[in-house]
Amino acid sequence: MATQILTPADYGSKTAPMVINVDDYPPGRYTRTKILRQAGFTVHEAATGEQALALLSHRPDLVLLDINLPDIDGFQVCKRIKENPDTAGTLVLHMSASNLLPRDQVAGLDGGADGYLMEPVEPAVLIATVKSLLRIRRAEEGLRRSNDSLRSLTDMLSHELREPLRQVSIYAEILHERMKDRAGPEEEQFFTNVLSGARRLGTLIEAVLTYSRTIYDVTSLSEISAEDALDASLAELDLLIAESGARIVSEQILPMVHADQLSLARVFSNLISNSIKYRSLAPPEIRITTVPDGPFFRFCFEDNGMGIDPKYHSRIFDVFKRLHGAEYPGTGIGLSLCRRIVENMGGSIWVESDAGRGARFYFTVPSAQDSHQKELPNDRWV
User: Quick one: which of 32, 95, 170, 267 has the most CB atoms within 10 Å?
Assistant: First the structure.
């Protein structure tokens, strides 16, 4: 089968993709270089791990990396490539004629490699594999550029909308104040509608901006106390909890988790305020529990509210999806924001509920090392 010759245009680039071909066996290195160059790639050669690392200054698109090298094995070379922020984005394709066991492949891929081929390999398969990896990388870069553009647009629209909305609110209030002695019931209703609409729009703008930042900002995760995150959310919701007469009960000291404290506190706040908003006739009560779940902790927020019909369980986490009308304030972003935050931290979120029987919101967060739970002598409640 003839090797397909590629042009730079195939990669959306003005220059041919660059490959570093790393192999201490000269005949094998020569053969692969010939195949790659015939296919349209720019190729640099290296016979050792150190030579390969030195050639990274050329900023290659892909490193074709043998496992058995005379100085540093290919696994260590790959690790050093991926740990360096300047080279972490470089694709690494392992090739080996001797490390052929499944555990070798697992070690290579778990060590950061983007692919693993066992020799002998057909030239067409080699070229197709390299093309596939470059295609995936090109798609990732396109998506990243699109996300950057969308984030810039969201930030710009939020900024541009805030000022005119602020002016509408200010002048509507001034006009209302000046006309309050002359305005009849109908005019009063007009002013009420204008000011209420401006407040709703302002809330929506801030919610959209928060949601977009949650999508595009890369949160730095670390070992944090879920108990501290809960304390922060309770302090933020202090007035709402007092006005509603809500009781929040936590039966354990919440564990140490691998998360972002501000983001986790936002999840807590959204779930608590959601339970208070959709309460039943009884005073709101939210019970918080957590249990180990493999490498995660599974949190449960159980309330005694209105409940949710099972047919809506998947819809409530979609952005702007609301099950109730204007009698319940909100933007329809809160639960979708919770899902985005939890998934960004590596977990998942779901609900179990029936209409009229309260709701149990579950979500998982990676546990911190050596985490453990402590029982409190009595329920902690607010």
Answer: 267
